[in-house]
Amino acid sequence: MWLKPEEILLKNAFKLWVTEKDNEYFVLQRRRGYGEGGGGLTGLLVGTLDTVLDSTSKVAPYRILHHTPDSQVYWSIACVFLGSGVTKEEIDQHWDWLQQNIMRTLSVFDSTEDITSFVQGKIRGLIAEEGKTSLVLEDDPEKFREALLRFEKWFELPAQEKLVTYYSCSYWKGKVPCQGWLYLSTNFLCFYSYLLGSEVKLIISWDEIWRLEKTSNVILTESIHVLAHGEDHYFSMLLHLSETFVIMEQLANYSIKRLFDKEAFQGEPALSDPLQITKRGLEAHAKSEQFRAFFRLPKEENLLEVHESFLWVPFSHFNTLGKICLSENYLCFASQDGSQCHIIIPMREVINVEKPDSSSRALTVCVRGKRALRFSEVRDYQRLANTIRSRCGISASPQHSASSEAIRGECQSLINHFEDNPEDVTLMVGQKDTSKAVSTEALMTVFHPQDVENLDPKMLKEKMKEQSWNIHFSEYGRGTSMFFTKKTRDLIVRGVPESLRGELWMLFSGAVNDMATHPGCYTELVEQSLGTSTLATDEIERDLHRSLPEHPAFQSDTGISALRRVLTAYAYRNPKIGYCQAMNILTSVLLLYAKEEEAFWLLVAVCERMLPDYFNRRIIVSGALVDQAVFEDLIRENLPQLVDHMTDLSFFSSVSLSWFLTLFISVLPIESAVNVVDCFFYDGIKAILQLGLAVLDYNMEALIACNDDAEAVTILNRFFDSVTNKDSPLPPTVQQASVGNNDKASHVSVDISELIREAYEKYGHFRSEEVESSRKRNKLHVIQTLEDTTKQNVIRVVSQDVRFTSSQLDELYNLFKRQHFLSCYWTMKSPALLHHDPSLAYLEQYQLGFQQFSELFSLLEPWAFCASKSTLSLWVFRLIDENQDGLVNFKEFCYALDTLYGVSFTNKLKFLFKLHLPPGISHKRFDSHANVSELFVFSSDPLPPVTPTGRGKVDLQAYLKQWQNEILKKEETIKDLPRINQAQFIQFSKTLYNIFHGDPEEESLYRAVAHVTSLLLRMEEVGRRLQEPSSPPAEATQPASTAASVEPSSTQEASGNPKTSDASGSHSSQEGAAEQPDPDWSFSFEQVLASLLNEPAIVGFFERHVHIQTKLGQARVAQLKLKANK
Predict the structure, then answer these.
(1) Bridge-partner residues for 305, per DSSP?
(2) CATH number for 189
(3) Is residue 119 within 8 Å of 66, Cβ to Cβ?
(4) What is the C-alpha to C-alpha distance for residues 349 and 480, in angstroms, rounded to an integer?
(5) Pairing of strands 163-173, 231-236
(6) Whether 592 and 701 share a structural domain
(7) Sign of CA dihedral 912, 916, 919, 920
(8) 231: nearest Cα among 209, 207, 199
(9) What is the mean pLDDT of the chain?
(10) pLDDT tens-place string over residues 484-498
(11) Under 8 Å between Cβ of 222 and 214
């Protein structure tokens, strides 16, 4: 056990200790009288002394001391008590951990004091780590409460932020590690350290992380690497590094799915509320994800129980050790390494659980088809048996709960009835005659029925394959409860018979379970989606005749109609995906070998489980890019010669995109591509990655010798055209229909079975779990790369219209985007999430509503002491929201800041002048004491409600019109501005007072405004007298009375009392409104500009240069604190 470091002055007092191991900084000692030899007479005396002492005074027989070469002081840091149920192995483990994790680190310190301080801090952290429970931190409320208080004190995050867990670790800042605490919360990764007077504080939001991985190097044996904002962060010396990494990985993935993909986690209560995320919930989610991926189960299934047991394997005649995994509707078993065998048993197939055998702790599960599975050595076998029984009772449908004899009798009576009364078939309750609408046969059986009398070599080999599979079925079972073994994979590699392809695809993909648990669902979807018109249906119609166009099945209405129904039904079922390119090619192949309903559920399995995020609303499919990044990693590991020749592997990403999107269907002849699909449904994306490596390996020499990318593409295209399937029983017409180039005479043909076999032999060593881990690691980088591309495109467009530098626009964009996400961190149903749509144009992907805009604008506006900021923010928001949709994009935001930070007095004044004209200010008179939120309600031109964007019909004419207006837009001149009326002018004057508030020259600025206001009003009065010489005196003096109403306000503003000025200004405005002034009374912008130009104080204030870089730095720090204060 680790000990709190205590000082020991004498290393070997009275020769009571024997040194067993030592190095420059640590010593492992054994107490004399223990261990080998006993230590002679001295050891006997020491042992006797330790024995006669009471238990509170006993000394540990082993200990570890820390020291430095130039010091005589030693520190005890670890010991072990043999009587406590542990052995010497524990102290050896401590010693090994120090050797691997601490020794290399200590070499970077310059002074012995720093070394000792670091070791002491690390040991104290390990003690605190061991003090936590292994399950979840909330199990020890007191310690977690203390950690939560430190977390809130140190990082000052909003009160809603949920701390998930914390760990003691070292953070590497430069070459020197800082011992401290790592805090993991729902939205942030935080670290805090205070050592030798130096404080280190780090806050990184999960959505800003580019890379998260476990690494090792010369100094750090193992650490966690985090890349964010272009900076590398390393966390090492974690007591439970793997556990920490899994939690970090889960939190980062959770953030990406919630904020970028807008997933709501409706079926997962543990993740549905970001304010209730726990360590236990994340760990359970990670295990459930792994469980579903391995057994190909629906996303609704969650891992509930795991039991270690032996399963009697009848085909091998022995018990294999493995784990029973139980979910809501499935009982699964996998051997210890997962490769020997595994089996999936739907609860609906279980008909009985025999009485457990207490002697061997065994239970037998009976399934349909007269099969039984015997599990033995199950620790909690009785409870497991009861759980399975209860699950079967819950999940079984009504007909399953009855006896098989009763079911058989009812079915026979129904058959007899309908044979005698065929007209009653259409009168069954809830049934509709849809048999004509949905095809019940695979297209291959319709357009290429097998000739049983044909005995050519290919057909004979096809029959031999069928016989091999029938033998396999007899030994390993058939259907949903079949054993999956190495022999199954061998048969897949050799090729699946045409007649069994659809059945096996359904079984291996798990689609058979989807279809069984959703009876009649496809027929309903076809009926509901029939006749609908959306963007998806338009795209489907456009691509229907591009799907295997030369195959006979898709030259007729039968194949085209089936393809239309499947794609339309899926787009209707899952509007989040809808329809994406390449789905038509994949579905057309599925329809060749599976019935229409089966093809639909196969498409569901591919799009939603086997190829996650391949088909989504992003412009570039992120899922395929993730797998291409995994592919690049595998190329580096397995094909170093190719990497040495082609240092830029992005070429392979562009070439291989179609490989992943269409599972090689678009590049291989159809008779060869289906063999690849066979492997894909059994091994998932791993099969595609293996085959990709084999293709590059086969063409290695030619690729190395090529001079450019075009030549490399030609080499690969020729190779794919030369791939054949010598065992395919398809007729030449079908084979030629799917080959783009028939000229194969000049190329050596390659058999697809041999290519697949070579792929498995050479590159089948990596496991599916490793692929999933690599997927998670690369997904962060791919998502952030797409986001960075969006940012660069936006900056490129905006930079043409503003004066900010590229680096300043980069920082502004980061603040703008972060402000959007800050509104989404603590709720699942934030309206701001509806504003983010990656399918829109770059400028429209991130937009801010008024509340978000107001908070960010208050941090960046150049007048630091401006009063009534919320009011000014509202007017600015209304002015720059050109399309009046209640949202502001980044370009509009930058336009406002660019004007306010510019050096042109005229432009700034024009901007302020326009703020007091509609739509900036309401048509109604503005009350300065009104709540800003009320302006949206009581204004005569309120902001329109924001409607969520979706993949409905796109109004192309509206887009073209908007584009045309932007092109024809003329630059606005000061003569184009309308005149400002009395109420607007008074409010304009008050705005100037508010802007000047707090400025060092506040008093002179107030006097200047008062002088200009009086001057303008007197000018207006003189002008009216000259124009209307015969008007009555009362009417002629009306502007003077207005001037009087402004003058007191101006005088009081100049006194420096903002509260009084606000009240007076408001009062004066109300008096002016009560007098109902002449609506023709107004000023032009030229008049206001000319008057203000005569006041050097005002001109100097607006032309004063304000450094936006300083504001950006302050905003980065204050943005999160502002949210916390609110």
Answers:
(1) 326
(2) 2.30.29.30
(3) yes
(4) 8
(5) antiparallel
(6) no
(7) positive
(8) 209
(9) 79
(10) 999 999 999 988 999
(11) yes
Co-location of 630 and 616 in the same domain: no
Altogether, the residues listed in the chain come to a count of 1126
Is the pLDDT confidence value at 1121 over 60?
yes
Domain count, the chain: 5
Predicted local distance difference test score (pLDDT) of residue 816: 93
**In three state form, how does the secondary structure of 684-716 look?**
CHHHHHHHHHHHHHHCHHHHHHCCCHHHHHHHH
- CATH code for the domain in which residue 655 is found: 1.10.472.80
- 563/355: higher pLDDT: 563
344 or 217: which carries more pLDDT confidence?
344
Last residue of a domain, one of 777, 797, 816: 777
Task: Tell me, yes or no, whether 612 and 629 share the same domain.
Answer: no
Beta-sheet pairing, 341-346 with 330-335 = antiparallel
Burial of 963 (0-12, 13-18, 19+ CB in 10 A): exposed
By C-alpha distance, which of 965, 883, 967, 866 is closest to 919? 883
Per-residue pLDDT averaged across 1114-1120, rounded?
A: 86
Strand (E) or helix (H) holding 858: helix 850-860
Tell me, what DSSP letter sits at residue 440? -
pLDDT value at 150 more than 50: yes
More confident: 853 or 102: 853
**Has residue 1110 been placed in a domain?**
no
Domain boundary among 603, 620, 637: 620
Using one digit for the tens of pLDDT, what is the confidence trace for 599-643? 999 999 999 899 988 887 654 557 888 999 999 999 999 999 888
Query: How far is the C-alpha of 916 from the C-alpha of 876, rounded, in Å?
Result: 10
**pLDDT, tens digit, 9 for 90 and up, residues 60-107:** 778 888 888 877 778 887 777 544 444 678 888 888 888 888 887 787
Higher pLDDT, 423 or 369: 369
Residue 346, preceding peptide bond in cis (omega within 30° of 0): no
Residue 274 token pair: 């970001």
- Please give the Cα distance from 137 to 119 (Å, whole number): 25
In angstroms, the Cα distances linking 875 to 898, 913, 921 are: 16, 11, 6
- Kindly report the CATH number assigned to the domain that includes residue 589: 1.10.8.270
User: Nearest 5°: phi and psi at 333?
Assistant: -140, 140
Same domain, 181 and 209: yes
Contact 776, 626 (CB under 8 A): no
Strands 231-236 and 223-228, by their bridges, are: antiparallel
Q: Are residues 632 and 765 in the same domain?
A: yes
Tell me the whole-structure pTM to 2 decimals.
Answer: 0.76
β-pairing verdict for 17-22 and 2-8: unpaired
Domain presence at residue 1065: no
Please, which residues have CB within 8 angstroms of residue 53's CB and are 6 or more apart in sequence? Answer: none
- Cis check: omega of the bond before 919, within 30 degrees of 0: yes
How many whole angstroms separate alpha carbon 98 and alpha carbon 26?
Answer: 8
Task: Annotate 239-268 with three-state secondary structure.
Answer: CCHHHHHHHHHHHHHHHHHHHCCCCCCCCC
- The verdict on 164 and 251 lying in the same domain is yes
Report the SS3 class of residue 5.
strand
The residue type of 7 is E
Together in a domain, 584 and 654? no
Using alpha carbons, select from 1015, 1067, 1078 the residue that is nearest to residue 1045.
1067
In whole angstroms, what is the distance from residue 128 CA to residue 786 CA? 41
- List all residues 6 or more positions away from 240 whose beta carbon is below 8 Å from its beta carbon: 129, 167
Report which secondary-structure segment, H or E, holds 911.
helix 905-915
Query: Residue 1036 has what pLDDT?
Result: 39
**Cα 654 to Cα 115: distance, rounded to the nearest angstrom:** 51
| Token pair recorded at residue 883 | 């399309």
Residue 56 domain-assigned?
yes
Alpha helix positions (H), 939-981: 956-968
Identify the pLDDT of residue 455.
67
653 in the same domain as 544: no
Structural domain including 586 reads 497-620
What would the pLDDT profile of 125-134 be if each residue is shown by its tens digit?
777 666 554 3
Which pair of tokens denotes residue 319? Answer: 């018990």
